[in-house]
User: Which sequence fits this backbone?
């Protein structure tokens, strides 16, 4: 029998969840909720979802919904995850799990006591070059992790046009959550010390009161050191809205990754230069592929086959701890040691 999945939050990324679930054999989209009921209806119409509502409670009451994706702004994750857990629904929550350590712990406890699965959508673990790097680290091909450089930044389009809620969050929650998870996962270690510096010279004067960037150093428990650059102020002249780079240096080898400007496909027309998406969720013969879809499909398969997800609530908690430390360090101007 087909298992029903629901989506809470019918915005940019909620649509990616719809693209993923509709292609999983044995799964179907059963309902969608968004505070903006018209947005829920629009997503339902586009993806053939039979139920749309402006009330997450109405969606969670439905017996034909076994699991939900929470794809709302980060500061809204906690109450929705708690409500979903109490309703007995398995949860795939977008990154970051929560924006305080106490909230992340509360979500994990609620899922444990309800006996539901909890996965945080750190989809870069399904991004092929990062997965290959992780395998090389695990085999020992690169020796012991020494240095890691991770750059994940967005053009100004993201905080000024794409996210209506940018000022209520920050590039640390939106992008450093991804790179902090990669740092922990690729180095096989936890973060023990964080030093971060931020500035607010570009967005704040435009009325978007959030830092422009965070330049962060992470010390990990195994001695590895990671540097992360995350900004929201790249020029919109860039042909891709994000810029992603990685250099991993081990004691026996190193790996460089360029997942954004890799040049696999470059298109030049009267509209200008474009690097069409071939990695994140490209459409091929009407089906969406790519790592953003793969992580969501993994969650669906875990629900269908009653397996534990590869990314856990604990991973989400650790990243929330790191991002909180980034914000604290940038605010105080000094390093923060994690307990
Ligand atoms: N945009 C991206 O490229 C991207 C990529 C990966 C992950 N994410 C993550 O996905 C999540 C959503 O981001 P987005 O870009 O889709 O934002 P968005 O603003 O496009 O959509 C969010 C939607 O959630 C709805 N919403 C807000 N509070 C709600 C509530 N309490 N109940 C029901 N609906 C509510 C809003 O009305 C809106 O339609 C965030 O956690 C973000 O970090 C976004």
Assistant:
């Amino acid at each position: 029998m087909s298992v029903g999945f629901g989506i809470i939050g019918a915005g940019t990324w909620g649509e990616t969840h719809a693209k993923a679930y509709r292609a999983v054999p044995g799964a179907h989209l059963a309902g969608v909720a968004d505070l903006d009921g018209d947005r829920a209806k629009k997503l339902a119409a586009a993806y053939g979802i039979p139920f749309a509502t402006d009330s997450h409670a109405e969606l969670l009451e439905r017996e034909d919904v076994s699991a939900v994706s929470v794809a709302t702004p980060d500061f809204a994750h906690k109450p929705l995850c708690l409500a979903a857990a109490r309703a007995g629904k398995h949860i795939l929550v977008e990154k970051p799990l929560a924006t305080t350590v106490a909230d992340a712990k509360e979500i994990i406890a609620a899922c444990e006591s309800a006996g539901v699965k909890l996965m945080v959508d750190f989809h870069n673990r399904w991004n092929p070059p990062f997965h290959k790097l992780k395998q090389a680290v695990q085999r020992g091909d690169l020796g012991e992790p020494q240095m890691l450089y991770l750059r994940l930044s967005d053009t100004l389009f993201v905080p000024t046009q794409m996210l209506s809620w940018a000022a209520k969050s920050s590039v640390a929650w939106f992008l450093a959550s991804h790179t902090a998870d990669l740092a922990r996962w690729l180095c096989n270690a936890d973060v023990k010390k964080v030093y971060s510096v931020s500035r607010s010279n570009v967005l704040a004067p435009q009325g978007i009161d959030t830092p422009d960037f965070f330049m962060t150093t992470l010390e990990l428990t195994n001695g590895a050191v990671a540097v992360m650059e995350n900004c929201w102020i790249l020029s919109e002249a860039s042909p891709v809205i994000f810029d992603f780079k990685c250099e991993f240096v081990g004691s026996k080898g190193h790996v460089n990754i360029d997942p954004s400007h890799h040049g696999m496909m470059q298109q030049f027309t009267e509209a200008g230069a474009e690097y069409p998406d071939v990695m994140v969720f490209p459409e091929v013969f009407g089906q969406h592929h790519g790592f953003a879809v793969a992580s969501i499909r993994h969650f669906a398969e875990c629900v269908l086959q009653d397996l534990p997800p590869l990314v856990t609530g604990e991973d989400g908690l650790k990243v929330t701890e790191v991002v909180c430390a980034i914000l604290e360090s940038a605010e105080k101007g000094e390093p923060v040691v994690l307990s």
